[in-house]
Design goal:
The complex is a heterodimer of chains A (119) and B (109). Chain A has strands at 5-7, 10-13, 19-24, 31-37, 44-50, 53-56, 65-68, 75-79, 88-95, 109-110, 114-118. Chain A is mainly beta. Chain A is globular and about 40 Å long. Mean pLDDT of chain A is 90; it is low at 99-103. In chain B, the strands form two sheets. In chain B, strands 2, 4, 5, 9, 10 and 11 form a six-stranded mixed sheet that branches. In chain B, strands 1-3-8-7-6 form a five-stranded antiparallel sheet, with no helix packed on it. The chains are: A mainly beta (119), B mainly beta (109).
Chain lengths: 119, 109
Amino acid sequence: EAGVAQSPRYKIIEKRQSVAFWCNPISGHATLYWYQQILGQGPKLLIQFQNNGVVDDSQLPKDRFSAERLKGVDSTLKIQPAKLEDSAVYLCASSLGWSLGGAETGELFFGEGSRLTVL
Amino acid sequence: QKEVEQNSGPLSVPEGAIASLNCTYSDRGSQSFFWYRQYSGKSPELIMFIYSNGDKEDGRFTAQLNKASQYVSLLIRDSQPSDSATYLCAVANNNDMRFGAGTRLTVKP
C-alpha cells in the first residue's frame, strides 16, 4: 500500500516569497490533515479536511496561509507571503476517519514532510 | 484552548530499564489517546492507541489511561537504544487531534 506522498521535501525561500506544498493521501482515506512542526515542538494542526470540506481551520493564519483539497483527494497548502517564523516542517497526514469507539480508525499516517526554510 | 502537556525531557535511561513517559490533557471530552514515536528528521509513527481507562499492553509497550485525572502514560520495558526518539502524546475528540510537544528519550547502552 502506497503511503502519504508529499512534495517538495525541501524548500528554501526568502521572506515575502510564496511557496506551495502538495500532498497525496493514502487511497480511500477521507480525512486529510496539514500540521506545522517547528523544531523542538510537537505538530500543530493547521487545517483538517473531511473529503473536500474543511472540518477545522481555526489555527490556520488565513492572512497568509491557504489550503484546498479539490475532488477530495490531493491537497495543496500555500504560504504567501512567507515570514521567517514559517520555517518548519509541514506534515501532511491522512486517516480513514472516525467513529465513536473506533479509535483505530483515527490513526494518522504521515508523509515524510516538507521542510521549509525562510531566509 | 485544548492543551496536551508532556515533559520535554530529555529522559535518559540505561539499556534494559523501564522508561516512563507521561502526558496530561485539558479537554475532558477527549475520547481517544495515541502515542507516536518520532525519530530525528523523520515523521511520527503510531506506537499505540487507547480509549478505555486502564492498561493496554503491546509487546514491550504499555499505555495507561486515567480519564478522571486526565492523564495518559506510556511505559517501555526492557528499553533498547533503538527506542531513542521523541515520543508524542496525541489526544483526540472525534476529528480533532492535538499533539503534545513530545518527550525526548535516550536509551544508553
